[in-house]
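Lecture notes, part 5. Sequence design as translation. It can be helpful to think of inverse folding as translation between two languages: the language of shapes and the language of residues. The source text, in structure tokens, appears below.
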């Protein structure tokens, strides 16, 4: 085991995969299904769980909220369904916990802002994420990008195609600074090939890679930063929320 040291703390990395606090230390005695949908889709998660007679297998307890860990059945398979909190650190904490209790294949769903002229409510699949958030650096050594699982991307593509939808892969900019997406930075990220922006993809992909799990994400387009001088919130992609969750379920079944 060794620590990569750097003058900048966020660039320091310890390759020890164990830590003083591990999720399994809670010893909850639960075994979760192998497959999970981990969705940034708000109350739609609870509505879907209720409509599909999901049971609550456990709760993830944080200081701000108890997150129900739903389990429902689809195509004779049990699937976990969990609402994801916004922000890389919070989202990864729950994802790592899910891995500790048996989850190995995960599809996430959520919205993104566009840096290039994609229409609203377009479904996209990130193939790699620029690591402009802090959490991924605790899971993988420093690098500019992290790749998203090819197996997960292939499963999402099959789900989209089954619905007659095109699979468009993109490079995403994962950032912690929602209110620091300056015009200059938007242009710079676009020059690096980033087509969309969100807050968690890089961190979730890094966590899954460290834990040897499969993770991928289905994004739908919401607001537009394509014209940095004329920001357009549009409709925040809200018309896609229900459909996105259905697609995520189909995708995780396809892994």
């Amino acid at each position: 085991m060794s620590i990569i040291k750097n003058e900048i703390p966020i660039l320091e990395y310890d390759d020890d995969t164990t830590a003083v606090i591990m999720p399994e230390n809670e010893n909850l005695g639960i075994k979760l299904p192998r497959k999970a949908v981990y969705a940034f889709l708000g109350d739609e998660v609870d509505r879907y769980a209720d409509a599909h007679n999901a049971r609550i297998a456990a709760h993830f307890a944080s200081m701000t909220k108890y997150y129900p860990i739903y389990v429902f059945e689809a195509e004779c398979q049990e699937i976990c369904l969990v609402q994801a909190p916004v922000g890389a650190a919070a989202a990864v904490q729950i994802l790592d916990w899910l891995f500790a209790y048996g989850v190995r294949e995960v599809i996430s769903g959520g919205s993104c802002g566009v840096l290039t002229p994609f229409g609203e409510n377009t479904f996209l699949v990130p193939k790699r994420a620029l690591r402009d958030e802090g959490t991924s650096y605790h899971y993988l050594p420093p690098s500019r990008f992290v790749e998203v699982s090819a197996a997960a991307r292939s499963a999402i593509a099959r789900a989209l195609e089954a619905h007659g939808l095109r699979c468009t892969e993109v490079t995403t900019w994962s950032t912690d600074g929602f209110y620091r997406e300056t015009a200059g930075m938007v242009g710079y990220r676009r020059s690096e090939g980033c087509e969309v922006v969100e807050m968690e993809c890089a961190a979730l992909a890094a966590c899954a890679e460290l834990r040897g799990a499969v993770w991928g994400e289905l994004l739908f387009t919401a607001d537009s930063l394509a014209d940095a001088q004329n920001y357009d919130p549009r409709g925040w992609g809200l018309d896609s929320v229900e459909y996105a969750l259905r697609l995520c379920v189909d995708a995780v079944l396809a892994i």
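The translated text above is only one of many valid answers, since several sequences can fold into similar shapes. DSSP finds six helices and twelve strands in the chain.
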